[in-house]
Amino acid sequence: MRASSSRTIGDFDYVIAGAGSAGCVLANRLSADPQVRVLLLEAGGKDNNIWIKVPLGLFYLIGNPRTDWCYQTEPEPECNGRQIPVPRGRMLGGSSSINGMVYARGQPRDYDVWRQLGNAGWAWDNVLPYFKKSRGLCQRRR
Predict the structure, then answer these.
(1) Of 51, 100, 107, 136, which is most buried, counting CB atoms within 10 Å of its CB?
(2) Which helix (H) or strand (E) holds 125?
(3) Is 20 left (phi over 0), alpha (psi -120 to 50) or beta?
(4) Rounded CA gap, 78 and 21, in Å?
(5) How far apart, in whole angstroms, are the C-alpha atoms of residue 127 and residue 110?
(6) Are 90 and 43 a contacting pair, CB within 8 Å?
(7) The dihedral of CA 117, 121, 122, 123: what is its sign?
(8) pLDDT at 8
(9) Which H or E run contains 72?
(10) pLDDT digits over 103-141, tens only?
(11) Which residue, 91, 99, 97, 100, is CA-closest to 65?
(12) Residue 81: exposed, middle, or buried by beta-carbon count in 10 A (0-12, 13-18, 19+)?
């Protein structure tokens, strides 16, 4: 892979497009192996906007082209032709950075029902340790 200055930036085992929640977790997990080189690409900027750290700061982030891709639906016939905003974060952290600091992991019964429907490993007792692990990662980040 070559940068525009013809300077070699190296070879990578994995290239991840998007430094939202999933991209960051995936890059973190893959790069835990010191033998693996991971390139994480993000088209947006840093997540250093003050409103990201303020509860309900989403009102200053959503619809702002510096922090939101400002996507909209096609005109919706059932909504009198209106286009509906579809906020998507444009920065490190992706849409998680513009969600008003809301974290919801669902109800235990929902996960147990998914397991009963044949999704092995999705019972509440199976997923709870991962939620606790991700919460610990978030707390260390601050």
Answers:
(1) 51
(2) helix 124-141
(3) beta
(4) 32
(5) 11
(6) yes
(7) positive
(8) 63
(9) strand 71-72
(10) 778 899 999 999 999 999 999 999 999 888 876 655 544
(11) 91
(12) exposed
